[in-house]
Amino acid sequence: MSCVNYECLNVRVSGGLRTPRLWMGGGGPSWLGPGWDVKSVTRAQRAAHQARSSPHSPGSAPPRSLSVAALRAPPCGSNMSVVRRGSAGLLLLRAGVWSRRVVASSASPRGPAWLVPSAVAWGRCLPSAFSSGPRPADTSLFVPLVVQPAVGSEEDIGAELTQSLDKNEVLKILNKFYKRKEMQKLGVDNGLDARLFHQAFISFRKWVMESNALPVEFHIALSDISYGAGHVDDIFPYFLQHSRQIFPMLECMEELRKISDLRFPSNWYPEARSMQRKIVFHAGPTNSGKTHHAIQRFLAARSAVYCGPLRLLAHEIYERSKGAGVPCDLVTGEERLFASEEGRPSSHVACTIEMCSTNIMYEVAVVDEIQMIRDPGRGWAWTRALLGLCAEEVHVCGEPAAIALVRDLMFTTGEEVEVHTYERLTPISIEDHALESLDKLQSGDCVVCFNKNDIYSISRQIEASGQECAVIYGSLPPGTKLAQAKKFNDPSDPCKILVATDAIGMGLNLSIRRVIFNSLTKPTMNEKGEKSMERISTSQALQIGGRAGRFGSAFSQGLVTTMHRDDLPVLKAIMARPLEPIQEAGLHPTAEQVELFTYNLPQATLSNIIDIFVSLSQVDGLYFVCNVDDFKFLADMIQHIPLNLRVRYVFCTAPINRKQPFVCTSFLKFARQYSRNEPLTVGWLCRHVSWPLAEPRNIRDLVHLEAVHDVFDLYLWLSYRFMDMFPDALLVRDLQRQLDSAIQEGVRNITRLIRATEESRGGVPHKQGSGEDDSSSADSPNRPTQTQGPDRTSGTGYRRKGQGTKNQGPGGAADMRIGNTTLKAVKGGSLSEQLLQQGLLTQQMLNQLRRELARDKKSRGNAEGDDGDGDKPGHRGNSPGDAKGSRG
């Protein structure tokens, strides 16, 4: 009989208890209790006794189907060694905080073959656990520093000891050194591959040839080589020293590799590892009620946190909690709302997932849309929440495709996953025919497009047919999206058709009867930042199509179809495919890791540091490094601005759309103003965005208003990180509400804006006094045209067409009211009078300027008279501004 002995070595997992599962011969499984600790030795002995007493013939093994689940794999990255002594096999599993030793004897010299860990889990651990070594660094990212040659008046001691060097002879010696294969090989041994060796030699040769005085030892070595008393290889120590000067990373490569080692992210959160968490996975398709069940537990808990991907979702849970009588705070990157009037934190928090705290203890945590853990840009936030939230219960909601990955991730922390599956509450089906014509649209239809131009085109055609439609796309402010959704859902509103992008996939409750895909391709970005047009995935098709027939809406069944006939069979094939299991979770370098990296490379740019970090980073089969192109883009933009590392890092994590020039320009100005230690007040911001803005007259104006809204978002985001430098968050939020109202009005009239844009592009003149401005298309797309006339600012803070003042400055010539605060602007009078009142100009300075201006006018008048010009001074042109310009 085969004898299996178990020696359990205190397998506590940072406060949590691991439950190993072993198959004992043919007698079936034996569970070693729900937990291991010092008191569990007797339980382990009892399990071993059961194993000895189970019938098992020598050399036999359990059924093959049990081999995969036989022994659960140790955490990824752990060390495993197998030592064989005769007929006994010793399997030692170590994982830092827990270990388990299994001694098995069998008639087979190879030991019991069925003691095999899960094939899937082990296979994904192997790349990091048993790799031959770290991958080589991408040396193309190493930017050489400049070493200045010694060109001063220093005394050349080497020349005094020997004699002056012949530069031509030195050049020959250096070139001979470069060509020697032995030196190149020696360079490789010291971290200099062919690329670095070449770059280092170019710098070294320039330094030698341009220096007036070389170090004494090096001078003597060159002199000896030139007279045949030395060998050219004697140059290598000096060359290597120079190479390490221009490539400082060569001397600290091991330290850099350790800092960028991302193989054990679960160890980044010691607070979470110190407790035994219960992980509950609510798996199901869209409209299955999975999040509802998690939220019920959220509301019933003593303390809880909800983590969602969108502000809209966080705001929905915030409102839902208030409606249930549960005090709840709202925390997003741009907003903080407290249930308590005194501003005291509540026991419940609804937040966007990037804003969740990994230090606060909760009874329940809800992580929504867990499938986004694979997102190339934001996946790191879900990984951080899943591994780091300090909660007794962590409820995870999302697609079933994420179950296997979550189990593998939780295995590395020693935590079990309890899975609850849900079915869709209402049926959904794919129609047998495509729509093919917008004339066939019916009440409750939603046309889904994947670019904004299609949104404009289709909405224009729909309204041309006499029907109203609502419009939703990603760059709209949350308030505008909600207003459009409310308009579409309202039974009494004549708007019964929705035109939207995939932004409807989550965060909005919509009463949709049928989803119509206008196209099945959309722009995507992979982990490397490469963009391409690809067909939507099964996950995306189910997420978007599943919005039809929402439970509790007017439609008890959801329908899905396509606009074009050729796309319909493709859509059916896509939605019929099973969901592909999610393989990897995203990671992102933390501020602490980047800071440690910078200490070793103090002269490198932040963008270059991130590049080197990613190239040296090591991850196991469960993780990938998220795309950092946006971070690097912002880092390069503000590299020339003097900021300390922490501030620079925070600025580079700001969530902005780098495709919008006006937003990028504002970001740059924010950073520059911060570097000057000058607070960014609401007055400064109003001047920057030219507030108040004109109402949109075409699509370009509307796009600019959306960009200004993003600038306000950026200000608010920074205000919660640098409160002293961005002090007017409340006032800016009032401005943003007014701006949101103007954008909503523009979206309601989007067909008129589209028509105005088409007419301006086609050269169709606008009628005088019609309110349309044919010059708007020629203006900068970053700024809507500001009209002239008496200042009659509307209650929303926007000048209507034909309103405003001619010389109204960026802040407006009239008083500007923001909430309960009035920003005083100097009224009336010339520029000189305004400067005097503001204390920027004294009367003496003004008198001096007037005398100088009079002399200049007189001298210009004499010169013009001599030239025989018929125009009199002061009467060039007949613009009204010239007649007024002489004052002051």
Automatic annotation (TrEMBL):
Signal peptide (residue range): none
GO process terms (BP): mitochondrial RNA 3'-end processing
Main location: mitochondrion
Cofactor dependence: Mg(2+); Mn(2+)
Name of the protein in question: ATP-dependent RNA helicase SUPV3L1, mitochondrial
Alphabetized UniProt keyword annotations: ATP-binding, Helicase, Hydrolase, Mitochondrion, Mitochondrion nucleoid, Nucleotide-binding, Transit peptide
UniProt-listed SUPFAM superfamilies: P-loop containing nucleoside triphosphate hydrolases
Superkingdom of origin: Eukaryota
UniProt-listed CDD domains: DEXQc_Suv3, SF2_C_suv3
Catalytic activity: ATP + H2O = ADP + phosphate + H(+)
Source organism of the structure: Petromyzon marinus
Enzyme class, first EC level, given as a word: hydrolase
